[in-house]
Amino acid sequence: MWFDPGFDIEPDYRAMTFRYGPDTFGPMPERRHLDDIRQSLRDPCCTGPEIPYIVSMDVGRMADRTDLIGRNLLYGAMIYAVGTLGSEPVRSQGHVHAVSVSCGCSTPEVYEIWDGEAVIYMQESAQDQPGSCYAVHAKPGQVVVVPPAWAHCTVNADPSRPMAFGAWCVRDYGFDYADVRRHGGLAYFPEVRTGGLSWVHNDAYEPSSLILREARGAEELGLTSGMSIYEQYERDHELFRFVTDPQTARNIWAVHEP
C-alpha cells in the first residue's frame, strides 16, 4: 500500500533513486554503503546489500522552497533496500541529532512511512545507561516523532520488500555518531526471525527494558492523522516550528513518550 506524501515524488526501487515531478525539487540521492555503517551493526563483518539505503535531503514543491528555506525547515526522503545485514534487517547505523547552531539545541525528527513497514528504534541516551528504549512499528501513512537528543535508527521491518518514507528535520541538521559507535551500536539490535523481528540487548550498555508499540500519531504536537505531514505543513506553515525550535514545545518533550 502506497501512502501519498502530498507532492510529486516517486521511488524507483530498482535504480535506488527518486523521480521528481515537474513541480518538485530534489537532489540526486546520497547512497549509504554497507561499509559506512558496519561499526554499528551486531556483526560488523556481515554481508548484505552494498547500498542498504539512500537519502535525498531537501525535497518538496517548487512553490514552497523559499518559505522552507526561510523557516530553516527541511524535508528528506529515503529508500531502504530489500534484504538483511547478516541476521539484522536493513537499517541505518544510529545517531543522535547534533546541536543545531540555529536553535542552540538538538532537534526532533518527524517520520512518515510511505511504503513497506518500518520500526523506528529510539533510546533516551547513547551513554552507558540508555534510559527508556522504544521500538515503534509503523505502516504507510503512520507518523513517528523522535524527540530531541534521543539516539535512534530506522529499520526496514519487512526484509522481503523495500521501504520508503519522508521526514521533517531542521535545515542545519548534523549527526553525532560518537557514543553510538563507542558502544558498537544502539542498546538493542533487531534480528530477523520467522514471523517478524526480535530484539537482542547490546551488552555494551547497562541493562534496560525495551518497549514495543505501534505508531500512535502525535496529536499533542498538533499533527492530524491521515493527512500527509507535507500537506499539513502547506495548510499551516507554522505547524512544524517545534522541529526547528524545539524549545517552543519543551513542556511536551518533558513528558513525551514515542
The CATH homologous superfamily: Jelly Rolls
Poorly predicted regions are: none
The N- and C-terminal alpha carbons lie at a distance of 24 Å
CATH architecture: Sandwich
Quaternary status: single chain
Say how many strands there are.
20
Mean pLDDT: 97
Give the proportion of residues in helices: 10-25%
Task: Indicate the overall shape.
Answer: globular
Order of helices and strands: EEEEHEEHEEEEEEEEEEEHEEEHHH
Q: What gyration radius follows from the Cα positions, in whole Å? A: 17 Å
Structural class: mainly beta
* Total number of distinct structural domains: 1
Can you summarize the main beta sheet? 6 strands, antiparallel
What is the spatial order of strands in the main beta sheet?
4-5-7-16-11-14
CATH class: Mainly Beta
Tell me the fraction of residues in β-strands, as a range: 25-35%
Pfam families: GPI
Pathway: Carbohydrate degradation; glycolysis; D-glyceraldehyde 3-phosphate and glycerone phosphate from D-glucose: step 2/4
Catalytic activity: alpha-D-glucose 6-phosphate = beta-D-fructose 6-phosphate
Keywords: Gluconeogenesis, Glycolysis, Isomerase
In short:
With about 260 residues, this protein is mainly beta. It has 6 helices and 20 strands.
Q: How would you portray this structure in words?
A:
This protein has a six-stranded antiparallel β-sheet. It has a single domain (9-248), classed as Jelly Rolls. It is mostly beta strands. It is built from six helices and 20 strands.
